[in-house]
Amino acid sequence: MTRRVVITGIGIRAPGGKGAKEFWSTLTSGRTATRRITFFDPSPYRSQIAAEADFDPVIEGLTASETDRMDRATQFAVVCAKEAVRDSGLELGGLDPYRVGVGLGSAVAAATSLEREYLALSDRGRDWEMDPARLSPHMFDYLVPSVMAAEIAWTVGAEGPVAMISNGCTSGIDSVGHAVQLIREGSADVMVAGASDTPITPIVVACFDAIKATTPRNDAPEQASRPFDGSRNGFVLAEGAAMFVLEEYDSARRRGAHIYAEVTGYATRSNAFHMTGLKPDGREMAEAIRVALDESRVDVTAVDYINAHGSGTKQNDRHETAAFKRSLGQHAYETPVSSIKSMVGHSLGAIGSVEIAASLLAIEHNVVPPTANLHTSDPECDLDYVPVTAREHRVNTVLTVGSGFGGFQSAMVLRSPQEVS
Amino acid sequence: MSAVGAVRAPGAGHSPAAAREPGPGTNPHPGTGPVYVTGIGVAAPNGLGLEQYWEAVLAGRSGVVPITRFDTSRYPARLAGQIEGFDASAHLPSRLLPQTDVSTRLALAAADWAIADAGVDPSGTTDYDMGVVTSNGCGGFEFTHREFKKLWSVGPQAVSVYESFAWFYAVNTGQISIRNGMRGPSSALVAEQAGGLDALGHARRTVRRGTPLVVTGGVDSAFDPWGWLSHLSSGRISHATDPERAYLPFDAAACGYVPGEGGAILVVEDPVAARARGASRVYGEIAGYASTFDPAPAGFRGERPARPGRPPGLRRAAEQALAQAGLTPKDVDVVFADAAGVRDLDRAEATAIRELFGARRVPVTAPKALTGRLYAGGGPLDVATALLTIRDGVIPASGASADVPADYGIDLVTKGPREARVACALVLARGRWGFNSAVVVREASV
Questions:
Q1: Mean of pLDDT values over A116-131
Q2: Which of A169, A178, A319, A381 is catalytic?
Q3: C-alpha distances in angstroms, B309 versus B306, B312?
Q4: Which terminus of chain A, N or C, has fewer Cβ atoms within 10 Å?
Q5: Is A140 inside any structural domain?
Q6: pLDDT(B266) > 90
């Protein structure tokens, strides 16, 4: 019999609030956390907007040594992992550590630290060859960032399978999907999984500037992230992390854990088309959705809410809308679809996990978060995107999807504990 | 202890996933069956191409040389497993050259060779029936170093339109998928030197979950000045100047490791699918895979009192991989060691092997002494080498390592290849900070 996997703990640090409560309050109020970049002077850049998180490592309880060695993304992930475990009520110390694993997603990993070290080693970009006297002892771990998953394993005492998944912008769905597969196949009983990215650093901003993927709407940062809106012209870069406790259903029930949802289906496909481009037909994302629903053993009409990738680029929102129609048929028109990136921006590899957190809270509260800044219609985006205002709505089954550079298209189905018990 | 923590037998609880894709060669009973290796492509410092590499390994030819990519005079270490004579333009279309790092070019070429070796025509295979799972340690690092330099010496407008995807860790998976029209489940994993075995393990899982064919493995390279300094900061790099003596795993004179570049890409398949398409050869089967993690080091968050009697993570990974394969240590004919070349790490690995197999009871080898440590590429190259060992009945030697401390208690293959019938090999890898992975390969059960 297939082992069932449920989520029993959430830890989140995202723009607009720390912890699930503040995060949900931001989302349901429709407030946007997108602002002019403050981490550095953004004036030389095409896109000068980002969603920055309010994160103080000292207040978060990290030691000086931890703050010194850990990249900002690692700090976020470690804090979220602790919070998720606390939220789950699991006494990790009482578990067999061999049966506990970690799945961490991240797209650009230690980008912030890489850039900091680069500036020191190269004398702010002057030197191609570098001065060994300025070398940080942590540089290797920014080059090869699997230490990020190691730090989480140490934090939660995991000695089972520990994996770092780096699939670009689907990393946050894929790391949780990976964890689900490991529990199902019996390689672990508990997985602490999720994703973290803190890419608001000049090199990453310049990367997306170069391909005009981010919005240049610099005169109106708070209204800059406009998924599905006719006037959308790119995404808003963000940072954030979300980590979860996943465990086998029967043990979660036996210990009386609060179950946010069961992960009933997960699938990923690739478009084999272009490293950054998307075909308008949405074929591969539709296939991922079809397989995830099939694995969930539910009909398409069971989907109550679609948490969209909705990045706010011209091609993504069109591609995704086509994928929903292709996979759900008429039901796509009858289902609320929304993009929280309109409020918290696009934190690359982390966002898939941040959106899983939003999906769990939508199930928890029977409320669908809105798509902020959606005012102008686009004939190619003609679904119910829940514009501007959150909506009370019975949410038992959520489909959450992601799309990433490299061609990755991932889909996950989450169902409320009432539905699955 | 709560019920969640109940110890289960290793390998127990495997169950088929619900979803399967259609396809003419789809195994009707996925989930637990064998997974074949039907194609191998190698890009190693001592050989470009599988047979060229194998010939070099058996002849004891090393790819460890003084770095020629940049002036190393100011750095304390100057030797690397460097690939020479790779002309990317001879292997790849010109439009791919400006958008790829050297590591991705090597990965694309190795993938081409593996697919050709397997006799697969990707264009004739259902697109969702092929996936790509690679490991990557460094991303497109030299490429990204150039872009950092442009950003900070010229300005944001100078940054390449390719930087956003030439850098990140999923680049090789994505480019292999695009080049070959592979639209099945795909992924990229990072676990330093252990990641390559994790990719193979996940590829095997992906096949068992219903995707008939997965291209898998790993390739890394970071031999620009910034990449090189980053290697050095690990504190484990050999400062030796004699290429023959720089990386001596398990030798009393071990003085660190030499980083290398390259790796191996493998085609793994469901046996039913392989038979259905008339696969020309089967190198062997990936019979077992497991990964474990070590407890927190002293002084780190999560440090806990030592638990006497608990086996080290590396041994546990090996035991679990063998149990999954339905094998015991006495079935293993050779161990391909992680072979860190750092004395305390060598000793720890020797102890794990000795305690699992008994003192000097199994040949142990480390042909990576001839290539350097390839990070994501290391595990897949060792698996490729293990499969050739099975094919040809000869175990390669461990480079120049010769003087193994007696108390290690391992039978290291030294001074030249050793003829032996090999039906089963255990491949070990450790990633910095506590990652342990093990793969068991054996002759295919036909």
A1: 96
A2: A169
A3: 9, 9
A4: N
A5: no
A6: yes
Using CB atoms within 10 Å of the CB of residue B392, give its burial: 0 to 12 exposed, 13 to 18 middle, 19+ buried. Answer: middle
Instruction: Give me the domains of chain B, ranges plus CATH numbers.
Output: 35-276 (3.40.47.10), 288-442 (3.40.47.10)
Q: Which two tokens stand for residue B278?
A: 């008339």
Statement: residue A62 has pLDDT above 50: yes
Q: What percent of chain B is modeled with pLDDT above 90? A: 87
The answer to whether the beta carbons of residues B423 and B440 sit under 8 Å apart is: no
Question: Within an 8 Å CB–CB cutoff, is residue A266 touching chain B?
Answer: no
Residue A119 belongs to a domain: no
Instruction: Give CA–CA dist B106/B43, Å, rounded.
Output: 7
Confirm whether A126 is domain-assigned: no
With cut-offs at 50, 70 and 90, classify the pLDDT of residue B17.
very low
Is residue A346 part of the annotated active site? The answer reads yes
Q: Residue B187's closest chain A neighbor by CA?
A: A167
Touching check for A267 and chain B: CB below 8 Å?
yes
Number of domains in chain A: 1
Domain that holds residue A285: 5-110+145-420
pLDDT confidence of A420, banded at 50, 70, 90? low
Residues in B touching A101 (Cβ below 8 Å): 293
- pLDDT category at B7 given cuts 50, 70, 90 is very low
Candidates A143, A176, A263, partner chain B, best to mutate (most B CBs within 10 A): A143
Q: Quick one: closest CA in A to B140, which residue?
A: A143
Q: Which residues of A touch B131 (CB under 8 A)?
A: 270
CA-only gyration radius of chain A, Å: 20
Question: Do the Cβ atoms of B136 and A166 come within 8 Å?
Answer: yes
Q: Is the pLDDT of residue A421 over 80?
A: no
Q: Which two tokens stand for residue A239?
A: 């940072």
Q: Is the pLDDT reported for residue B16 higher than 60?
A: no
Instruction: Give the count of Cβ contacts less than 8 A between chain A and B.
Output: 332
Q: What is the CATH number of the domain that holds A168?
A: 3.40.47.10
Instruction: Report pLDDT digits (tens) over B351-373.
Output: 999 999 999 999 999 999 999 99
Residue A275 DSSP one-character state: S
> CA–CA separation, A58 vs A40, rounded Å?
21
> pTM to 2 decimals?
0.96
Indicate the residue of A91, A96, A268 with minimum beta-carbon distance to B185: A268
Q: In A, residues 168-227, which contact B (CB 8 Å cutoff)?
A: 168, 174, 178, 181, 184-187, 189-190, 202-203, 205-211, 213
Q: Is residue A115 part of a domain?
A: no
Q: State how far residue A366 is from chain B, nearest Cα, in angstroms.
A: 28
Pairing of β A305-307 and β A337-338: parallel
Q: For residues A48 and B340, what is the distance between their CA atoms, to the nearest angstrom?
A: 45
A86 touches chain B (CB under 8 A): no
Query: Which of A270, A297, A311, A410 is the mutation pick for testing B, counting most B CBs within 10 A?
Result: A270
Partner residue opposite A275 with nearest CB, options B6, B174, B316: B174
* Region of B362 on the Ramachandran plot (φ > 0 left; ψ -120 to 50 alpha; else beta): beta
Between B16 and B378, residue with greater pLDDT: B378
Q: How confident is the model at residue A97 (pLDDT cuts 50, 70, 90)?
A: very high
- DSSP letter assigned to residue B242: -
Strand, helix or coil for residue A262:
strand
> And the tokens for A132?
């060994």
Residue A403 host element (H or E): strand A397-403
Q: Are B433 and B191 within 8 A, CB to CB? A: no
- Asked if A264 has any chain B CB less than 8 Å from its own CB, the reply is no
Q: Is residue B25's pLDDT more than 60? A: no
Mean pLDDT of A72-83: 98
